[in-house]
Specification:
The protein has 20 helices and 15 strands. With about 550 residues, the protein is of the alpha/beta class. The strands form 4 sheets. A 5-stranded parallel sheet has the order 7-6-5-11-12, with helices on both faces. It has a 4-stranded antiparallel sheet with strand order 1-2-4-3. A 3-stranded antiparallel sheet has the order 8-9-10. The relative contact order is 0.10. The structure holds one RNA strand of 77 nucleotides.
Length: about 550
Amino acid sequence: MKQEVYNIVKKSLEAISRESGRELNETEFEVEMPKRKGFGDFSTNVAMIAASKTGSKPRDIAEKIVSEINDMECKIVEKVEIAGPGFINFFLKDESFVNQLKNIYELADSYGSSDIGGGERVIVEFVSANPTGYLHFGHARNAAVGDSVSRLLSFAGFNVEKEFYVNDAGMQMQMLGKSVFARFKELLGIDSELPEDGYQGEYVIEIAKDIYGSKKDELEKLSDDEAEQLCKDYAYKFLINEIKNDLSNLRVEFDNWYSEKEKIHDQNKLENAQSKLQAASALEKKDGALWFKATQFGDSQDWVLIKSDGSPTYFIADIAYHDDKFERGFKRLINIWGADHHSHFTRLKSSMKAIGYDEESVEVVLIQFVRLVENGKEVAMSKRAGSYITLREVLEEVGPDVTRFFLLMRSSDSHLDFDLNLAKQQSSENPVYYIQYVYARISSILKNAEEDELNPSDKHIDSLSDELELAIIKKLLSFPEAAGSAAESLSPHKICYYLQQLASDFHLYYNKVKIINSEDKDLSSARLYLIICIGIVIKNGLTLLGVDSPKRM
RNA sequence: GCGCCCGUAGCUCAGCUGGAUAGAGCAACGGACUUCUAAUCCGUAGGUCACAGGUUCGACUCCUGUCGGGCGCGCCA
């Protein structure tokens, strides 16, 4: 519809250009849906743009355009007005909206999807937490956003893979092994202390107990180094499994679990990355270490790739990893990172630029911190202290629907207060239930209609003439745009806002009119048809957020 | 010192990549239950968009600076 309005304006511009000899037909203008009702269904700023080009008054140009449009006799246009500084507002005929419902009904689950992506391959990497402990609540926001962004992009026609990068090769893993082994020795009654930077959490003791129960004899025969190694492997398997479980309970499933050790280190990818950087003359030896001259590629400082003791840094592994993503054929590399990693972004981009990739293909969504608030006070979540709030604890208390919605409802680059009290409330204050309730109500009405032998039908949808009905239909018709815009800007929170508005419209409508009215079967059938369409959009929107649409509440 | 994010109603936040009279939810106050599920709806009140300049037809939005809050600036990951 927007396109049709655009074409009408375009045509009138061409006509005016022909008459006056002025080159107005190349004016770039926008057609948008105005915020206010009084400004029509669509609005264009074309007159203002054209005016600044030609030096004449916006309203004069608007008058010409409008009279041109009035001469054209467009089927969908009811009337056209000039308003404010020179906006041209279009009021379309009601039936042109109502008829679009059929489109929603037929497309059903795929309504709102698009082919903006054209099948382009995209990799979304997120969470990627070190498998050295349970996921804490900060990871949950990353997980929810990453997963929802992936859903948005798939819906918009991209070919998306979700990947968890497992940091199983670094110092952290060694430390985990040492920590577990120290706890194991404690169980044997041997006096031992946790390493200085060791992991203090309760789970380390639990894991040690597991090992004590099943592998005590085996372990006692080994040297300390070997025992540490065994502890590490055991703890790793245990924790990665727990992480998978937690994510699964949050309805986050990954396509790939990409092991840094197996896929990078054991495959000589580090050397590969190093030689690519060498070929770009981006390397330098200094103080016994190998440096990447990032300053030559836009960063503010240089970075060490190989330490003076010969061991690789995390950074060179990450360069190799991202090089590998491109090698695997992905055109867009999207990373969901905590805001504390922002400096790493510049570094990574400059390295990709050095190797010869388009740095614009590497995108990062930075996630600001989550504060967990209960009873007006912040709940601490320090990992090292061992007393952090885990994703699991929150999931057990409030469930995946509320957890996900709350984590998604704010823009990623805004700090988020997660109010546990509010999340736990199953009441009107809780926006998740508010939206889900729409779906439940609709399902319930449809069930009742069936019992009354009333069937939804598009035969009489012209009778949908209530102001609210038209408002809802217009809102439904803007869903594809909302989904597209959310995908484009990698912003799931836009879907949250959209759904809250739609839910509000529906509840208002529900309170105002009876959907089922056995006195007027034609109208009822049309209204049933309408609420099915509302249900479709609610469900599609919630699915993009990874939230369920229950039929009963 | 340098870099990134934020500053909008009492609170938590939107504001579609410059548009028309600034938008929700919650909290507050007043109303609507013989209900197609009241987990709902209606009404009232609430604002110098942190501050100061600049860019232009037009700025909450873009640029510069100041103030305030968060985060980062390792041969850690």
